[in-house]
Amino acid sequence: MRNPLPASYYYFFWLVEPALTLCGAIYAIFLPEKYASELLPPHYERVTTIMGNTVRGQIVIGGLGSCFLLLAMISLSLFPIIKHTLKDQPAAQAKLVKGLLIPLAIADLTHIFVTLIPMPMSLLETPQKWTTLVNGNVWITTVLFIVRVSYLLGIGRKKTASPSNTLAAIENDTKKVPHSNPSFEKDSKKVPPTSPSVEKDTKKAQPGIPAVEDVAHEAPSVNQTPVTPSKTPRRRTRVKEAAHIETS
């Protein structure tokens, strides 16, 4: 979805538009006589130039200024709430901003319409003769309408990732579990057989070092008792030898 309230649109609707509307409200409420005289050039309907001095005129112009003040207060109070309170809910932000701008855009058209329709054709065909107040009512309101329509059309609002799509992507990624490779499991379970030649080689002793098995065989057993040679005197041996010679 598109960015619900970029900084450029936010500051325009929150500060610029209310400032312009407040200027119109102050002008109408505190200077009704001048406001009434500025609605038309001096040489058009000179009788109505004193409308701002009458009670009826002041009530009408004061009511118009009160409406301007109301519109300014709505923008000043609502846009910060939409921007900051609902910053984690872009869909709600977009709906609220659109719900506010669409009625204002319709009001812009009606304001331009009711300003131009009562004018005589000679004055409509010569905008250079318009007063400052008429130019403000027409051209400033036209600019406001263009900005509102630009927002509604998505101009200047970059597309951002939808939170729902982002959440769905995260859930899909977490659900994906890598499958184990069967061949890898089989290979890991296989134990390589011991080669007989390797066993023989391990049993062979290095040159100059007796093998472990030979040393084990040569070592005397603990239970064996050493044989001690019998000690015979030399004299007895000689007597036996002499007797043997005589008999022979």
From TrEMBL:
Comp. bias regions, Polar residues: 221-231
Transmembrane segments: 9-30, 59-79, 100-118, 138-155
Keywords, comma-separated and alphabetical: Membrane, Transmembrane, Transmembrane helix
Record field: compositional bias (Basic and acidic residues): 239-248
Residue span of region Disordered: 166-248
InterPro entries referenced in this protein's UniProt entry, alphabetically: DUF7704 (IPR056121)
Protein known as: DUF7704 domain-containing protein
Natural source organism: Naematelia encephala
Lineage per the UniProt record: Eukaryota, Fungi, Dikarya, Basidiomycota, Agaricomycotina
